[in-house]
């Protein structure tokens, strides 16, 4: 030990020794860093790091030895042979590289020991080979013990140092490994030098010596330290870079492995599975071990494999860099799912091809939803377009193409809103579709879209198509546009509107249309100080056409007249049909000659014979004319006056055209006034019922009462039924009056103390009304009157209009249990035929026969004949108009069943109680 100390202190330059020690320390640190980089590197990079670590470590150890030897001063001139010096450097690099390779190749204790021994032995060989390169004027005498000790001390720390450097992870193990390396190198050098004894002898040094000097050692040391510093910096930089890469790869691996809703895996260049994430295992059912190495075709159907679909996808990705597709893919259990597949080629930083990255997403639910959406869109009767905030088309359904005649290829997603209109308009307008038309249409619809809540606009897209276009904004800034073909609806609406304003048979304006247009014409005439001629028209002999030739012939005549009238009309002239044979017309005019011409044309159209097939019909017409404002300041006044003039023309022989004159036809005006007042009579409680008793002729026993209607007018007092009943029948008000009489009579009769019969007259107009049976039924139910106590009286004139219908209605009423009596018998057109057509419950002889029986032999004969007829038919007969005892004796002598008249009582508000 003392020899080593003497060697260091007396035989060496302490400064170079310290520098050599620094080199050794830095070299040891670099060796540890390089070994750990080689340990952590992949297979390809590991060799590069191994070679680098051997070269750096071997050179550093050699530099440590060379620098220390440069500091050696034995007191004689020394030098170094070049070849042995270079050979010692090669031995140092080769031995350390071999030792490191063995230690890194197999991670075992024996590999570390063998590698350490080779490394230590190599360092020792480098030392003594370097000493052999030393040339001086002296002979070497080695101490065998010291040499052996130096070699042993160089080898012993090496295995431990390699184990700590390679197997250790922390800083402490690295520092320990470096310390052992430093210790082995320094102990080797100084122990070996201590065992050297020089025996000087005279002589010259060889010429091929590397001259030795302190400056030479300093230069080698600086180069070695610089190289080591660069190496350490490179290792540290690479370590940080590797740490960042490892962190990134770790994060990416965590990300990829953590994704469970997508299958993400690598394919080798030939299309076999090279990696497998959790999403792939969940989606396809294969574990990682099962999936590794499988062909891509494994996940395809046999049909797709036979068609080469997997191979085409791989080739497309290889050729174009990416391949995308959708289709059915299959799991391990054989079930399938709809997949969206992406295959991308993978290249490293040098451009070398490494395989493919494959991503598979399960789109089954999306496809189902998309299929449902497609089905819904395809089956919509509306066309639908979805536009984005950039005004580009996102999607549209097939109905849009049907409506506009545009294919998806002509209007694909991404088409601008303005281009959609341009294409659609161009299909229908052709060359007439100008940019101005397109711009105007787009601006009009864009105004609706940007208005806030959207809206709907009706567009006559073409003469054949009418569209309802609705725009609704979306939350994302786009909007949904729907196109509804409302052509049929519009046409139906127009037909309905036409039907509501026109006569169904002739197509002429109806009363409502005529009234509305007349109001407009009168208002315009009032503003411009012009005139309007209002004309009431009633066809002559039209009823005869229906009676003689049937309603079909009558309808054909009306249609022919309507065509004539329509063809002869000029601007602002209007002809309307109110119903039946009632027409009306008006014409604004400034000159009386215009009215004369219009009336002349009307008369011509209405008087020319109408030829229908083989039938020639000669009609005529009565025209009444009133002028606005001379003959009335309101529509009601001028129309009423025109009607008055028309009635005068109809009732005046030889006149077919009549102008209104003030004061004419006051009776007609009174009739109209009465008709208007009748409409309010029920509401004002002006009507009441009186009852005339009916008794048996032989015993004068009361059997019932006939209900008679009375009207107390607030201005005119009591008005006779003979006066207002015909007016009510003309105006149709008899329907309401008759129903009121029936209900009131039933209700009051139900409260009588005796269960006597009540007789109620039915107007012919009532008999033809569709609701008569329901009204009778309702009156009986509401009043609680038994049906057999109600007797309805009808006259023979009720059968003239429609005998079959009248008889059908009477049979329905008779089935209820109600009695039916024929009233005013003997005054009709065919009394016997009427009796033969229906089983009446009673015959009522008209009062005129009984009143004339005292003086008229024929009247008495008729009474006897009717009574005989009744007896033969077993039908009771009631005589009306009984006023004298002589008349009563006549009825008794002839066997009359019942009678009523002033002799037994006048009509009273309430029936008098009949004694038991």
Tell me about this structure.
- This protein has 916 residues and is of the alpha+beta class.
- It folds into 5 domains: 2-233, no CATH class; 260-367, PAS domain (Beta-Lactamase, 2-Layer Sandwich), CATH 3.30.450.20; 380-491, Beta-Lactamase, CATH 3.30.450; 502-664, 2-Layer Sandwich (Alpha-Beta Plaits); 680-900, Alpha-Beta Barrel (TIM Barrel), CATH 3.20.20.450.
- The chain has an 8-stranded mixed beta barrel.
- Strand 10 (383-387) and strand 11 (393-396) form a beta hairpin.
- Helix 7 packs antiparallel against helix 8 (171-194).
- The longest helix is centred in the first third of the chain and has 45 residues, at 214-258.
- Residues 1-10 and 207-211 have low confidence and may be disordered.
Kindly summarize this structure in a few lines.
With 916 residues, this protein is an alpha+beta fold.
- Any idea what the shape is? rod-shaped
Q: Provide the low-confidence segments as ranges.
A: 1-10, 207-211
What spatial order of strands do you see in the largest sheet? 22-23-25-26-27-28-29-30
Output the radius of gyration.
64 Å
The count of DSSP E runs of length 2 or more, i.e. the number of strands, is 30
The proportion of strand residues reads: 15-25%
- Name the structural class: alpha+beta
């Amino acid at each position: 030990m003392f020899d080593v100390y003497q060697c260091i202190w007396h035989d060496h330059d302490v400064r170079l020794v310290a520098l050599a020690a620094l080199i050794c320390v830095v070299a040891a640190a670099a060796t540890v860093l390089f070994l750990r980089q080689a340990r952590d590197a992949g297979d390809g990079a590991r060799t590069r790091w191994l070679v680098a670590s051997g070269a750096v470590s071997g050179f550093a150890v050699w530099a440590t030895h060379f620098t220390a030897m440069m500091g050696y001063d034995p007191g004689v001139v020394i030098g170094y042979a070049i070849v042995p010096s270079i050979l010692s450097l090669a031995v140092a690099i080769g031995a350390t590289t071999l030792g490191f390779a063995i230690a890194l190749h197999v991670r075992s204790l024996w590999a570390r020991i063998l590698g350490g021994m080779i490394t230590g032995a190599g360092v020792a060989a480098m030392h003594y080979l370097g000493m052999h390169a030393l040339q001086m004027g002296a002979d070497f005498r080695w101490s065998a013990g010291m040499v052996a000790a130096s070699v042993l001390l160089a080898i012993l720390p090496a295995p431990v140092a390699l184990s700590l450097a390679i197997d250790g992870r922390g800083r402490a193990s690295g520092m320990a490994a470096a310390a052992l390396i430093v210790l082995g190198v320094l102990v080797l050098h100084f122990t070996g030098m201590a065992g050297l004894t020089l025996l000087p002898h005279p002589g010259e040094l060889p010429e091929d010596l590397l001259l030795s000097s302190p400056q030479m050692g300093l230069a080698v040391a600086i180069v070695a330290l610089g190289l080591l510093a660069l190496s350490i910096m490179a290792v540290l930089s690479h370590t940080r870079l590797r740490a960042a890469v490892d962190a990134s790869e770790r994060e990416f691996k965590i990300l990829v492995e953590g994704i469970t809703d997508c299958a993400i895996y690598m394919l080798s260049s030939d299309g076999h599975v090279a990696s497998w994430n959790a999403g792939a295992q969940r989606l396809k059912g294969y574990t990682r071990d099962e999936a590794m190495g499988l062909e891509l075709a494994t996940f395809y159907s046999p049909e797709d494999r036979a068609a080469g679909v997997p191979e085409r996808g791989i080739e497309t990705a290889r050729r174009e860099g990416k391949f995308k597709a959708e289709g059915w893919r299959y799991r391990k259990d054989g079930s399938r799912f709809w997949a969206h597949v992406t295959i991308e080629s993978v290249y490293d930083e040098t451009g070398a091809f490494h395989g493919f990255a494959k991503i598979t997403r399960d789109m089954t639910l999306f496809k189902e939803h998309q299929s449902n959406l497609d089905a819904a869109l395809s089956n919509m009767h509306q066309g639908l377009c979805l536009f984005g905030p950039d005004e580009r088309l996102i999607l549209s359904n097939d109905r849009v193409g049907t409506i506009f005649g545009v294919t998806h290829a002509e209007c694909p997603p991404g088409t601008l809103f303005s281009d959609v209109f341009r294409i659609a308009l161009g299909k229908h307008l052709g060359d007439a579709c100008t940019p101005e038309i397109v711009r105007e249409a787009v601006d009009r619809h864009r105004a609706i879209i940007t208005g806030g809540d959207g809206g709907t606009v009706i567009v006559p897209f073409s003469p054949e198509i009418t569209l309802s276009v609705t725009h609704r904004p979306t939350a994302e800034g786009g909007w949904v546009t729907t196109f509804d073909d409302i052509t049929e609806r519009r046409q139906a609406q127009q037909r309905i509107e036409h039907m509501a304003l026109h006569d169904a048979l002739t197509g002429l304006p109806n009363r409502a249309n005529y009234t509305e247009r007349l109001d407009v014409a009168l208002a315009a005439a009032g503003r411009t100080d012009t005139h309007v001629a209002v004309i009431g028209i009633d066809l002559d002999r039209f009823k005869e056409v229906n009676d003689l030739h049937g309603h079909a012939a009558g309808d054909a005549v009306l249609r022919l007249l309507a065509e004539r009238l329509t063809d002869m009309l000029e601007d602002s002239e209007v002809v309307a049909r109110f119903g039946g044979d009632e027409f009306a017309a008006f014409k604004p005019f400034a000159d009386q000659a215009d009215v004369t011409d219009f009336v002349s044309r009307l008369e011509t159209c209405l008087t020319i014979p109408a030829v229908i097939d083989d039938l020639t019909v000669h009609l005529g017409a009565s025209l009444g004319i009133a002028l606005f404002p001379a003959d009335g300041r309101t529509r009601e006044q001028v129309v009423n006056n025109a009607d008055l003039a028309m009635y005068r023309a109809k009732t005046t022989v030889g006149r077919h055209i009549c102008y209104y004159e003030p004061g004419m036809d006051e009776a007609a005006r009174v009739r109209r006034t009465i008709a208007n007042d009748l409409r309010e009579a029920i509401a004002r409680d002006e009507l009441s019922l009186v009852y005339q008793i009916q008794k048996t002729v032989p015993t004068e026993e009361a059997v019932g009462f006939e209900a008679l209607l009375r009207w107390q007018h607030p201005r005119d007092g009591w008005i006779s039924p003979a006066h207002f009943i015909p007016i009510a029948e003309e105006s149709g008000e008899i329907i309401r009056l008759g129903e009121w009489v029936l209900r009131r009579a039933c209700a009051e009769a139900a409260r009588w103390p005796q269960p006597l019969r009540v007789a109620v007259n039915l107007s012919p107009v009532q008999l033809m009304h569709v609701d008569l049976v329901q009204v009778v039924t309702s009156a009986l139910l509401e009043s609680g009157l038994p049906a057999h106590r109600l007797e309805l009286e009808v006259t023979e004139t009720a059968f003239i209009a429609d005998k079959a219908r009248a008889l059908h209605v009477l049979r329905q009423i008779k089935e209820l249990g109600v009695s039916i009596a024929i009233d005013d018998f003997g005054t009709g057109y065919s009394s016997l035929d009427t009796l033969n057509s229906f089983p009446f419950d009673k015959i009522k002889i008209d009062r005129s026969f009984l009143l004339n029986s005292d003086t008229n032999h024929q009247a008495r004969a008729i009474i006897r004949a009717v009574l005989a007829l009744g007896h033969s038919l077993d039908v009771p007969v009631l005589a009306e108009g009984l006023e004298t005892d002589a008349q009563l004796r006549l009825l008794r002598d002839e066997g009359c069943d019942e009678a009523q008249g002033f002799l037994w009582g006048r009509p009273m508000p309430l029936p008098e109680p009949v004694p038991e």
